[in-house]
Amino acid sequence: ETLTLLWSFIVSVYCVGGMIGCLCSGFLTAKYGKKKCLLCNNLLMIVAASIMGCSKIARSFEMIVVGRFMCGISAGLCAPLHHQYVGEISPRKLRGFANSTASFFWTLGKVVGQISGQRELLGSQSLWPMLMASCGLPALVQLVTLPFFPESPPYLLIHKGDQESCKKAIRQLWGEGHHQADIDDIMKEKATMKNTKILSVLELLKEPAFRWQLYTIVILTATVQLCGINAV
């Protein structure tokens, strides 16, 4: 019973970390920018993977608990960050496609994890620490490649007010050309945000104007678990 309780806690603590990460993502991106947050998030995931990978050598299940919690925080931060950054650095005609890749790679990650976790591969008694540490590999790849990408143009213009850096980032991402229409769209978004109050989670739940949108999102998110995507 104690062993079952410990493993149940190890599994569920990931979701607790994910909730904390999601709640912090909005504040952190507004303050530090999406690129910088993603870089720091990769470091967090690499540290978490290292802690879990060394748990067997240290003979400490507590390290697995800590590592899973940190992985949850990292995943919670990454989920909204990824969509926002990829969407904002993509040209308008590719924006929908770029955002849809997130769902594909989330599912692909689950499949790779399920296959790698088989006893014939990394799920054996001797190799399971490598399996738990493998989540650090994608984070390491992004940590190495992301510095070559610019900060999100909307963040530079809306939050930093730096129009020159915004234009430079757009040219680096989309090439030389006439991008004034895109800059104008960002300026319109900035003007709209000035006149829009940012609601907290509690205020959002209490706001009658968003009640049906909230119901729709909750129902879709809950029922997606019943569509068979995890089995696939």
From TrEMBL:
Domain named Major facilitator superfamily (MFS) profile: which ranges?
1-232
Please state what the protein is called.
Answer: GTR5 protein
Entry GO terms, CC: plasma membrane
What are the protein's UniProt keywords?
A: Membrane, Transmembrane, Transmembrane helix
Q: How does it sit in the membrane?
A: Multi-pass membrane protein
Does this entry carry the keyword Transmembrane helix?
Answer: yes
- Would I find Cell wall biogenesis/degradation among this entry's keywords? no
Question: Per the database entry, which stretches of residues form a coiled coil?
Answer: none
PROSITE patterns with a match to the protein in the record: MFS, SUGAR_TRANSPORT_2
| Stretches that traverse the bilayer | 6-30, 37-58
Q: Name one GO molecular function term.
A: D-glucose transmembrane transporter activity
What InterPro entries does the record tag this protein with?
Answer: GLUT, MFS_dom, MFS_sugar_transport-like, MFS_trans_sf, Sugar_transporter_CS
Q: Which gene encodes it?
A: Slc2a5_2
Q: What is the annotated localization of this protein?
A: Membrane
Q: What's one GO BP annotation on this UniProt entry?
A: dehydroascorbic acid transport
